[in-house]
Specification:
By secondary structure, this protein is an alpha/beta fold. The protein has 13 helices and 13 strands. The strands form 2 sheets. Strands 1, 2, 3, 4, 5, 6, 7, 8 and 9 form a 9-stranded mixed sheet that branches. A 4-stranded mixed sheet has the order 10-11-12-13, with helices on both faces. Strand 7 and strand 8 form a beta hairpin. Helix 11 crosses helix 12. The longest helix is centred in the last third of the chain and has 30 residues. The termini are far apart.
Length: 388
C-alpha cells in the first residue's frame, strides 16, 4: 500500500468522528430534577419552582454520606412557563438543564386553566424527556411539594419518581407520563386522570402523599377522585396490580373484615348494542391471596373458600358499579374511555354519536361480572382459634 493511500484511509474516518454536536461541560449547567408550576390568577403569571441538583458536596473528600447530592430550590415568575425558566439563568449564572428532570407538579389553579402550555414546552424543546411523570398538587401550591422533607433521598423530585415507578405494582394511583398525556388528549372525548400529591402528617410533621386522582375535561382540571375511588377506577382501566381488597362480612352482631391481596388482574370490556341503547359488559378475572381475617369463620377450607369467593365477587361488582354511578353524577362525562372503545370497534356508530357522547354516556347501562380466584399460600390451613 502506498504512503498516500495509507494517509487517505487514516484521514477519511476522522471526518466522521467529530464528537457530540451539542456537548456542554457539566460545570456550565444547573441540572433540574423537577419543576413545580403554579398560576397566580390575580397577576396572570406563572410561579415556577425548580429543584436543582447541587453536586458540590460530592467533589471533596469525606464519607459517602457527606458527598451526597443536595436539593436547591429556585423560584421565578413569568408571563409564560418558558419565560420563568429562562429567568433562572439571571439568578444562577448557569443555564438550567432539563434533560434529567423526572417530575412535574402542577398546582390546582394552573391545572384548571389548562396543562397544554407546559406540555407544549416539553414537546417543543429537545432537552426534556417525554417520559417525565406529571402530578397535580391538591390543597397547597405545587411549589410547597418540592419544599417538603424527603424520606429516602435529598432530592424530592427523584423521590416522587421512585415511588411511582419503582413501586408501581404497590402504589394505587393512576400513572401517566408526558407522552401518554399528549397522545390521550388527541383522542376524541377521552378524558385523563392524573395522580394527586397532597398533604400528610407524619408524627406531627407535614409531608406529601400520593393519594387520589385529578380528573380533567380535555386539558383542564375539573375535580378529584378520592383515594377510595381509585381501586375501582383502576380495575375498570385494567391497571390494577398488587393491591388490597377489604371484604366485609358479618357474624351475628359483629362486623368482620377479610383482607385479600390481588396478585394480577385482567379486565375485558365489551360494548353491547340493543334497541334499548348502548351498554357495556365489564368482566374482571383476579387472582388473590387471603392475607388476613379477623373472623373465626372458616374461609380457608375448600367450602369456606367458595363462600369467600362469592362474597368477594359481589363486593367488587358492587364497588365498581357504585363507582361508575358516582362519577356519572359528579362529572357527567366519561372518565374511563368507554367512548374510545366504541370509536375503535364501531367507527360508523361513533361518527354518529361522537358529538353527543357526554349526553349518550349518561344513559349507558353497565353489566359488571367479577371472577375472583383465591390462591392458598398460608402456613396454617385452619382459622386461628382462641380458647378462654
Amino acid at each position: 500500500m502506498s504512503k498516500n493511500l495509507f494517509i487517505f484511509f487514516i484521514l477519511i474516518p476522522c471526518l466522521f468522528l467529530t464528537g457530540c454536536w451539542s456537548y456542554r461541560e457539566v460545570d456550565s449547567l444547573y441540572i433540574i430534577a423537577g419543576i413545580a408550576i403554579d398560576k397566580d390568577p390575580n397577576a396572570d403569571r406563572y410561579d415556577i419552582t425548580a429543584e436543582f441538583v447541587d453536586a458540590k458536596a460530592a467533589s471533596g473528600g469525606g464519607s459517602q454520606v457527606e458527598q451526597g447530592l443536595q436539593s436547591v430550590l429556585l423560584e421565578t415568575k413569568g408571563v409564560s412557563i418558558f419565560d420563568a425558566v429562562r429567568k433562572m439563568i439571571k439568578i444562577s449564572a448557569k443555564r438550567p438543564y432539563l434533560a434529567h428532570a423526572t417530575t412535574i407538579v402542577v398546582g390546582e389553579e394552573a391545572a384548571r386553566e389548562g396543562i397544554v402550555p407546559f406540555l407544549d414546552l416539553i414537546a417543543a424543546n429537545e432537552e426534556p424527556r417525554l417520559d417525565v411523570d406529571v402530578y397535580v398538587s391538591r390543597g397547597k401550591p405545587a411549589g410547597e411539594i418540592l419544599r417538603t422533607k424527603s424520606f429516602s433521598t435529598e432530592i424530592r423530585s427523584f423521590e416522587l419518581s421512585m415511588i411511582i415507578n419503582e413501586n408501581k405494582q404497590l402504589v394505587r394511583i393512576p400513572r401517566l407520563k408526558v407522552y401518554e398525556i399528549i397522545n390521550q388528549l388527541a383522542i376524541p372525548k377521552f378524558n385523563i386522570v392524573l395522580p394527586v400529591v397532597t398533604s400528610f402528617f407524619n408524627k406531627g410533621e407535614s409531608t406529601n402523599i400520593l393519594s387520589g386522582g385529578a380528573v380533567f375535561k380535555t386539558d383542564r382540571l375539573v375535580g378529584f377522585l378520592e383515594q377510595d375511588d381509585i381501586i375501582p377506577y383502576l380495575f375498570i382501566k385494567d391497571e390494577i396490580q398488587s393491591d388490597i381488597l377489604n371484604v366485609e362480612t358479618r357474624e351475628g352482631d359483629i362486623n368482620s373484615t377479610i383482607t385479600l391481596e390481588t396478585l394480577n388482574n385482567s379486565t375485558k370490556i365489551k360494548p353491547v348494542y340493543s334497541t334499548e341503547g348502548i351498554g357495556f359488559d365489564i368482566k374482571t378475572k383476579t387472582d388473590v391471596f387471603l392475607t388476613e381475617s379477623d373472623t373465626t369463620t372458616d374461609f380457608i377450607s375448600p367450602m369456606g373458600r367458595r363462600k369467600l369467593k362469592e362474597l368477594a365477587e359481589k363486593h367488587l361488582e358492587k364497588r365498581i358499579e357504585n363507582h361508575i354511578k358516582k362519577t356519572k353524577e359528579k362529572f357527567e362525562f366519561d372518565i374511563f374511555g368507554f367512548g374510545n372503545i366504541i370509536r375503535q370497534r364501531n367507527p360508523k356508530l361513533w361518527k354518529d354519536i361522537e358529538k353527543d357522547w357526554d349526553t349518550v354516556f349518561m344513559d349507558v347501562n353497565f353489566n359488571v361480572k367479577c371472577d375472583i380466584r383465591i390462591k392458598n399460600a398460608r402456613h396454617v390451613l385452619t382459622p386461628i382459634k382462641v380458647v378462654d
